[in-house]
Amino acid sequence: MSARAAAYAVWALYGALTLFVFLLQLSLFPALLPVRPMWLPLLPLIVAVLEGEWSGLWFGLAAGVLCDTVFFGTGVFYSVALMLLSAAAGRHAGSLFSGKVAACAAICPAGVLLTGLLHFLFCQALPGRAGIAALWLIAAPEAAVTLLSAPLLFLPAWLISRIRPAAKKRAPRVPYRIKRYLRR
Amino acid sequence: MKRLLKRKAAFTAAAVGVALVIMGIISAFTSGRASILTSAAGFVTKPFRLLASSVSGGASSFLGYIRDYDALQAENTALAAEIERLRRENRELEGMRRENEELRVIAGLKETRPSFVFVSAAVTARSTSNWARTLTLDKGSSAGIAAGHSVLSAEGGGCLVGVVAEVSPGWCVVRLVTDSSFAAGAVVYRTAQTAVAEGRFDLMTRGRLGLLRLPSGSDLRIGDLVLTSGAGGVLPPGLPIAAVASVYDEKDGFSLTAELVPAVSPDRLSAVYVVIAYEQVGEP
Questions:
Q1: Residue B44 pLDDT more than 80?
Q2: In a domain, B50, yes or no
Q3: Is the pLDDT confidence value at B113 over 50?
Q4: B125 and B101 together in one domain
Q5: What region does B239 belong to: left with phi over 0, alpha with psi -120 to 50, or beta?
Q6: Residue A139 and which of A23, A124, B72, B144 are 20 to 30 A apart at CA?
Q7: DSSP label at residue A166
Q8: CB contact under 8 A, A133 and B202
Q9: Facing residues of A46 across strands?
Q10: Residue A173 pLDDT class (50, 70, 90 cuts)
């Protein structure tokens, strides 16, 4: 499989995974679980760690728009927050951690907690919908359930990212002057 | 030795010949019955004949199929069209049956609430977030629905399910009575005590709402029915909201709070009725 075909396959599968999570979030979780895990906002963080900052930014924006349509009363919070957080997660994952799994294990919980905190601040506390008590009544169980179930979401995303062949190491770029000198 | 063998072979051939002649004579005299030879041959060849017959039958039917292909294809097309027509009719009848049921329910609601104008809507999604208790309906502003309209269930002569919170042309979001942002003027049916029915996060997680700011010493019993008071003119008066499940003193010692169980469980609702207009009691 060529690199381009692999990239198409990877993003098609990420799209399918997003659709599956969207349907879960919309139908199965509300019907079965008293505390719903927030997989839809978690997915772009995982993808950002696995694919890098630019992929994370665009995927975060797309997933954020989906979140804003699914969740009531969030305005454009998720579109903006997930875009920025995913880009940041993708940028720092590669520089802080050597392995993808370790990076995900460290960055995703931080991202989930930060998203939850910002959601509480901008969508609940500042508009006067909720007091500080909602943090441990709603936000804490939500974050706990999301993080406990996160490996179930990470596994398929990680398997998808493994489809792509490892990038070939490029030869270091040689300045033109040195090249010309070597030719002589 | 050779001569002996030749003799034996000649003897055997002669015996077989004689036997065949005898069998021929017997069969000539017994008309209507197969000879022994024929029977034996028939017994041995029966499986082969069956096989040949099935092959020829298959071949002839295949040839017939090829010969009648056009006619069969035309018949198949006609049958497919017939099935499609019957399916369409079935769908239409199913739609009419549903519409009939809805109209019956609306007629029932109309009897109990003659001043209300209803729009029926189907529930397409339930609360997806942990922060709100909502229902998404399949009708919106194009059907005359606006934010603030009350939403009723068919059960119990029209119990309050929630209030429309967000509207778009094709859908709307209903904030349920158990949502933490819900608040409505309420009255206890038995005692005519007025209060505020309000959602709270701690009650929302248990599918309940509260009756807040009741004066200490209020006469409240478990099972008391709580209705909308109509105060403020947003919600119609007299809609059942919930029943009292428990009563306890507030920490300040001056007021009571009652936990209410909604009159209808939103998890079981598949269709609701939005009140898009109603006549105020006492209006000219």
A1: no
A2: yes
A3: yes
A4: no
A5: beta
A6: A23
A7: P
A8: yes
A9: none
A10: low
Domain carrying residue B260: 117-278
How far, in Å, CA of B136 to CA of B109, rounded? 22
Indicate whether B123 pLDDT > 80: yes
B183-187: long-range contacts, CB 8 A cutoff, minimum separation 24: B184/B160, B184/B228, B184/B229, B184/B234, B184/B235, B184/B241, B185/B228, B185/B229, B185/B230, B185/B231, B185/B232, B185/B235, B186/B211, B186/B226, B186/B227, B186/B228, B186/B229, B186/B241, B187/B226, B187/B227, B187/B228, B187/B229, B187/B237
Residue B55 lies in a domain: yes
Q: Are B256 and B240 in contact (CB under 8 A)?
A: no
Express each pLDDT in A67-88 by its tens digit: 988 888 888 999 999 999 999 9
**CB atoms near residue B228 (< 10 Å):** 22
Best mutation target among B124, B131, B172 (most A Cβ atoms within 10 Å) is B131
Residue B51 burial (10 A CB sphere; 0-12, 13-18, 19+) = exposed
Give the distance from residue A34's alpha carbon to the nearest chain B alpha carbon, in angstroms: 8
Beta-carbon-side half-sphere exposure of residue B51 (alpha carbons within 13 Å) = 5
Q: Mark which of B66, B93, B112 sits at the end of a domain.
A: B112
CA distance B209 to chain A (A): 15
Cα radius of gyration rounded to whole Å, chain A = 20
* Token couple for A42: 């978690």
Report which of A56, A41, A40 is spatially closest to residue A93, judged by C-alpha positions. A56
Q: Under an 8 A CB cutoff, do B131 and A141 touch? A: no
A71/B180 Cβ within 8 A: no
Which strand (E) or helix (H) includes residue A164?
none
| Architecture category of domain A3-166 in CATH | Orthogonal Bundle (1.10)
| B143 and B98 both lie in a single domain | no
- Complex ipTM more than 0.85, yes or no: no
Q: From B126, which residue of chain A is nearest by alpha-carbon distance?
A: A30
Instruction: Please check whether residues B73 and B169 belong to one and the same domain.
Output: no
Nearest to B125 among A26, A119, A141 (CB): A26
Q: Give residue limits of the domains in chain A.
A: 3-166
Last residue of a domain, one of B90, B112, B134: B112
Q: pLDDT tens-digit profile of B145-202? A: 999 999 998 776 688 999 999 898 988 999 999 998 898 889 898 888 888 899 988 8
Instruction: Say what the pLDDT of residue B257 is.
Output: 86
Residues B100 and B124 in one domain: no
Could you identify the residue written with the tokens 């109990």? B112
